[in-house]
Amino acid sequence: MVMDNWITLSLTTKGPLNLKRTLETGHSSFPIPRSDKSGRYYFVITIPDSHKKVVCRVYQKGAKLIAEVSSYNEQLSENDLKALKKLLRKTFGLHLNMLEFYTEFKNDPIAPAFKHCVGVRLTCAHDHFESLISSILTQNSSIWKWVGQARRIKELMGDKFPTDHFMVYSFPDPQKLFRYKHLLKEAKLGYREEYVIKSTQDIANYQIRLDKLENIPTMEAKKVLLKLKGIGPKVADMFLLYGLGKIDAPPTDIWIQRGVSKIFFKGKEKSLEECREKLVERYGKWAGIAQLYMFDWIRSTSKK
User: Fold this and answer.
1) Hey, which residues does 160 pair with through a beta bridge?
2) 234-249 pLDDT, tens digit each
3) Are 136 and 81 in the same domain?
């Protein structure tokens, strides 16, 4: 049965929004959702507290984010819709006042990125486990490669939700992914497969509770994440920023290393850790946002 009975939710933003750019910059909050010909992006989201799974499709209308949701054979209460709106606001970074960031750093060396990336928001995980696995898959990989791998995992193990346009899949929970880990061969993860399996095992056995990391200081959470196999400093920061929304955690890869070295050290190449420290020192609570804008700006301009 095709999903129908869509309920429409309208969400306002603080500052500009560019949904397409936000979703397609390669964040690792979750794989880029598939879109239909009308430009609506589809994904499965679980409502907090009630744990009901719904298909959500989102699109932009002016300065607003429009979310349409549909559920199989389950009535959605007013509390469900209220919780869903709150989760979607965080998922798409609508709660962040980007104008404050633009204003505070309007004379900064990365200010040209504001015009280039105007409206780009920090996405945040609606599913912590999916986000962590996505972060692992980004290692030494292109955006579309890791997105394809994450989508394949969903197709192999996730629940199916048919729509008018295509099938939409949920991401498997840790217990299910570990139970069907033999199917990962079909996702062609390479050496990352070992890391995915071992991290999944620890999470499935409750050695680490990802949801508990939200409420502890960033560096404490990072120490916990580094205990997982295959998670180094960069991947840990990816999950801290894009998974948990800790905007003071800037992931540092070769693109950021090049940018920070060029902008702040006159082209003298610095280590990844030195570049991370520079971002934290200069941008403080906004370090993760600065990293996001610098990453998209440098990658786009280098292609030209």
Assistant:
1) 169
2) 999 999 999 999 999 9
3) no
Q: Residue 49, CB half-sphere, CA atoms under 13 Å: how many?
A: 11
Convert 146-157 into a string of H (helix), E (strand) and C (coil): HHHHHHHHHHHH
AA letter at 194: E
Q: Using the predicted structure, report yes or no on whether residue 191 has a pLDDT greater than 60.
A: yes
Of 138, 103, 98, the residue nearest 120 (C-alpha): 98
Residues 132 and 222 both lie in one domain:
yes
**Average pLDDT across the chain, whole number:** 93
Its domain, for residue 61, covers: 7-95
Provide the residue type at 285 as one letter.
K
Q: Which of 92, 95, 86 is nearest to 15 (CA)?
A: 95
Structure-block tokens of residue 33: 């959702």
pLDDT at 303 over 80: no
Enclosing H/E stretch for 167: strand 167-169
Q: Is residue 295 part of a domain?
A: no
Q: Alpha-carbon distance 241 to 154, whole Å?
A: 23
Q: Decide: pTM greater than 0.90.
A: yes
